[in-house]
Amino acid sequence: MINKKKCTIKITGIVNEIHVKSNDVTLITVSYLVDGEEYEIKEKLKFKGETIKLGFIPIGQRRYPVIGTKRVMDEVDICYNPENPAEAYIVGNDGFWTS
Predict the structure, then answer these.
(1) Which residues are bridge partners to 60 per DSSP?
(2) What separation, in Å, do the N-terminal and C-terminal C-alpha atoms of the chain show?
(3) How buried is residue 98: exposed, middle or buried, by Cβ count under 10 Å (0-12/13-18/19+)?
(4) Considering only CA atoms, which of 75, 58, 79 is closest in space to residue 5?
(5) What's the whole-number mean pLDDT along residues 11-16?
(6) Residue 50 clears pLDDT 90, i.e. is over it
(7) CA 76 – CA 32 distance, rounded (Å)
(8) Which of 28, 40, 63, 95 pairs as cysteine with 46 (C-beta 3.0–4.6 A)?
(9) Is pLDDT at 38 greater than 90 in this prediction?
(10) How confident is the model at residue 96, as a pLDDT?
């Protein structure tokens, strides 16, 4: 479990992989450099929903990542723990709805 309070340094990471593991889980792998050493983190993507309506009638739900649509080689913000650079998280990938 990541202690986000200790992750105080923000840098840019690069998306290495986006993997749809199942209908309910999409994993994103991001690499980042700290003092010349490469680190990698893997997180479940969090999604937000938007109701699709036909007039006033809801007919479905559209889901999209809270950090926006990302592709391999895209940049994302990372916060890491300066005492342990391997402890990090993707900034903005917050929420409860995973896919």
Answers:
(1) 52
(2) 20
(3) middle
(4) 79
(5) 98
(6) no
(7) 10
(8) 95
(9) yes
(10) 62
CA distances from 36 to 39, 67, 75 (A): 10, 26, 18
Structure-block tokens of residue 86: 């391997």
Distance CA 26, CA 53 (A): 26
- The number of beta carbons lying within 10 Å of the beta carbon of residue 53 is 10
Cα distances from 25 to residues 41, 57, 58, 61, in angstroms, run: 16, 29, 25, 17
In the block, tokens 């998280």 appear at 89
**Token pair recorded at residue 35:** 């003092």
Written as six digits, the tokens of 92 are 């903005």
Q: List residues bridging with 9 in a β-sheet.
A: 80
Q: Is the pLDDT of residue 86 over 90?
A: yes
Whole-angstrom CA distances from 26 to 7, 11, 20, 46 are: 24, 23, 4, 9
| CB-based contacts of 24, cutoff 8 Å, min separation 6 | 98, 99
